[in-house]
Amino acid sequence: MRGSAVGVACGPPGTIFSRLSFPHLFSANTAPENCGSIQAEVYFSKKYKPLDRSPEACIETVIRDLRKVGILRDDDRILHKNAAFAEYANIIFDHDRPKAIEIVHGYLDEQGIGYCGRYGDWAYIWTDESFMSGENAAEKIMRVAK
Predict the structure, then answer these.
(1) 112/74 same-domain check
(2) 146/89 Cα distance (integer angstroms)
(3) Digitized pLDDT (tens) for each residue of the chain, 146 residues in all
(4) 46-57: string of b/e by CB count within 10 Å (b at 16+)?
(5) Which of 52, 72, 90 is the last residue of a domain?
(6) Same domain for 74 and 6?
(7) Contact 23, 37 (CB under 8 A)
(8) Do 83 and 101 fall into the same domain?
């Protein structure tokens, strides 16, 4: 994108995206000079919200919705568009989760297998929390190994 589009919106009702991030705010090296970058996440799941189109087919809808919520203006020029598919990206919190965690973690504990991080703990945790989860798992393994 080129222009002065600046803003934050996280999945307002009626938009296709669930979360936005703006990588150019973290590092100037993520976009050309005088440009910005937007990453839009479009969530789906086989169980609750099946993906009804290709990831590439989501791009124009995302752009339309970014304009609708005022993040992009009509005169902003988009220099690059890309869609990536990540089948397993976020933890789904549903009524099946607690029992599933109990079964999986119980089995791993019985086998002496350590687990950590977003997928191992099956928790929606940030990067620093994932790192701490890894440290805790390593300490637990080291205690058992002594």
Answers:
(1) no
(2) 36
(3) 444 444 444 667 889 998 898 989 888 898 999 999 999 999 888 888 899 999 999 999 999 999 999 999 999 999 999 999 988 877 778 899 899 999 999 999 999 899 999 889 988 888 899 999 999 999 988 888 77
(4) eeeeeeeeeeee
(5) 90
(6) yes
(7) yes
(8) no
